[in-house]
């Protein structure tokens, strides 16, 4: 836990629990493992996690509506290499699993703080997702909010809440946490569906076992006491075990009726209904789970389930990783979903044809979009059409009304990228 020491803060000397709107004490235990014993639930969550881990987190600065990537910043460094234990995809995977399990995910940024002409500056070193067993929200005498984390080992530490990235899922009733009133996932309704699903599967297993344990009925055409019945059964079993020809010799006093194995399974529509009822809780359609989806189905999945998570992540990281001054200059962290976009080859070509005339694509970007390897000789090359003019001067340019009009030919190749 040495990395914790870099940001370790003891609780303020005179503190009280932070006030809540509902009057409850803001002490929350992390919870949410019961439903994840279900294979359907695990597969549904994994569908979301596997898509989120494809995101490309980027530090950008907006000029108007135009985002410019900032490649030389310690923020971009930790986004590209979060900590010594994780790659970017592993970091996003871990964070998303914690969020889906607990409806809350906490990330501790490690940085060195310094001042430049009186302005606060931060040099980021790492981002660590943590999994506390209990979270307390407290405030000092000045009303500053702190968050105290307790871990399974008994270790605890306290941070100013403003220094902790906090992602919330199903953020509704609770003032500080995602989930229900107690800051926990409420899976009561889902557990009923999972129990029904378990009963169906258990019933199938028992039916199959019982069906194959009873192979036939032996009828004895005489009255027999219990001892003779058991003796007859043992004799019958011996005849079966000793018989190698498949023909069972019986005398006139016995009659054997074989049972035909016809196992009636639960119909496919019922099982599909149960699966989809579970999947709806996570916004994962069955085609996505099966990996057999169309472009339209994936787009619906992205807009309904993934995009809200991506927006929340972008805003949470931006809120906590930048100073007030940096946010005033419109620094943002965006999680670009390029790798998530499901396009056919024809659609990719159409995109290239639309963006190429404007200089919106580097030559190697065009190649990689088509699955081709980038070429060293094309590094940094970006071409565009010169058949573009300022829209405000289009009429004058077309009719030659004013020879002195300045027509700006767009040539972004001359501008810094």
Kindly summarize this structure in a few lines.
The chain is of the alpha+beta class and 417 residues long. 38% of the residues lie in helices and 19% in strands.
Summarize the topology.
Layout (H helix, E strand, L loop, with lengths): L1 H4 L9 E3 L9 E3 L9 H14 L3 E8 L2 E4 L4 H7 L7 H15 L1 E13 L2 E12 L3 E7 L4 E6 L5 E5 L4 E4 L19 H26 L2 E5 L5 H17 L11 E5 L9 H13 L5 H5 L4 H27 L2 H5 L2 E6 L8 H11 L7 H7 L24 H6 L18
Helix pairs in contact: 2-4, 5-7
Structure description:
The longest helix is centred in the last third of the chain and has 27 residues, at 295-321. This protein has helices spanning 2-5, 39-52, 74-80, 88-102, 188-213, 226-242, 268-280, 286-290, 295-321, 324-328, 345-355, 363-369, 394-399, and strands at residues 15-17, 27-29, 56-63, 66-69, 104-116, 119-130, 134-140, 145-150, 156-160, 165-168, 216-220, 254-258, 331-336. The protein is an alpha+beta fold and 417 residues long. It is extended, with a radius of gyration of 33 Å. Mean pLDDT is 76; it is low at 20-33, 244-250 and 407-417. It has three domains: 2-185 and 283-325, no CATH class; 216-258; 345-414, no CATH class.
Distance between the termini: 41 Å
Q: How would you sum up the major sheet?
A: 5 strands, antiparallel
Class from helix and strand fractions: alpha+beta
Q: Report the β-strand fraction as a percent range.
A: 15-25%
Number of domains: 3
State the helicity in percent bands: 25-40%
H-E string: HEEHEEHHEEEEEEHEHEHHHHEHHH
pLDDT averaged over residues: 76
As residue ranges, the low-confidence spans are: 20-33, 244-250, 407-417
Number of separate strands: 13
What's the tally of helices?
Answer: 13
**Overall form:** extended
What's the gyration radius in Å?
A: 33 Å
